[in-house]
């Protein structure tokens, strides 16, 4: 496995390797990230994983400065699976000058996560496009846990005619249902014991939706109340269309339930796809 820190080194290494598959990450890797790499490996001749904590996608009061940087440990984990290249640039390498040109996702950037975290998806889309230009992958793998992000990147690739297949991998969960996330380590023991409730609430929303006896607004309000009752501070629990994350119409059948809430200081995200037959 090669660990590369500059764009020039990366391009030199990847010359003559047109069939590479890419997994962008911010490091502090857990089992969910490793599953993405395992999903990528059989799909190309070379698997590239980037590790870069991207300042552009963090808000002014978010955790950019304290986000864990664990490159040495991450590389050990990647060596144990089928990873060929780790691209780990520093900030000056990726942003050698102020990034005045950015990708501005329209519409979807302003709802849900975009409303709670203004500018977040602009930062995500911009860094991913830069990384695509550096790595030149045939395909890239992202986890469905960040559902809205996946939709933003799929739309970017389609509308900008990028020659990159966007592959979405299922969310990896702990035995108690908690979606794996690098930020789970911020949870206290008591918060970690409570954290699986978010996924259980999404399952309850799914069950209620299948009965067809309540309005979406009623189901969503009950879910928010359930979280608040147990000490959470929810931003949203909502049912949306998968295609564009807009509120569903009566004839929509392919839906997704999305939830985001703070439990103490950490903020947790989760989602659950729902098909109404």
What percent of residues adopt helix (DSSP H or I)? Answer: 25-40%
Please mark out the parts with pLDDT under 50 across 5 or more consecutive residues, or reply none: none
CATH architecture classification name of the largest domain:
3-Layer(aba) Sandwich
* Adjacency order of strands in the biggest sheet: 1-4-3-2-5-6
Strand fraction equals: 15-25%
Largest sheet: 6 strands, parallel
Question: What is the CA-atom radius of gyration, in angstroms?
Answer: 19 Å
Number of strands: 9
Class computed from helices, strands and strand pairing: alpha/beta
CATH topology of the largest domain: Rossmann fold
The global form is globular
Number of domains: 2
How far apart are the termini?
47 Å
The run of helices and strands is EHEHEHEHHHEHEHHHEEE
CATH class of the largest domain: Alpha Beta
Any idea what the CATH superfamily of the largest domain is called? HUPs
**Helix run count:** 10
Overall mean pLDDT: 95
Describe the protein:
With 277 residues, this protein is α/β, with parallel strands linked by helices. It has two domains: 2-169, Rossmann fold, CATH 3.40.50; 182-271, Pantoate-beta-alanine ligase, C-terminal domain (Pantoate--beta-alanine Ligase, Chain: A,domain 2), CATH 3.30.1300. It contains ten helices and nine strands. The chain has helices at residues 7-14, 31-40, 71-79, 91-94, 113-116, 120-135, 147-159, 189-194, 197-211, 216-229; strands spanning 2-4, 20-25, 46-51, 85-87, 139-143, 165-169, 233-241, 254-262, 267-275. The protein has a six-stranded parallel β-sheet with strand order 1-4-3-2-5-6, sandwiched between helices. The protein has a three-stranded antiparallel β-sheet with strand order 7-8-9. Helix 7 links the parallel strand 5 and strand 6 (165-169). Helix 6 (120-135) crosses helix 7 (147-159) and helix 9 runs antiparallel to helix 10. The radius of gyration is 19 Å and the shape is globular. The N and C termini lie far apart (47 Å). The mean pLDDT is 95.
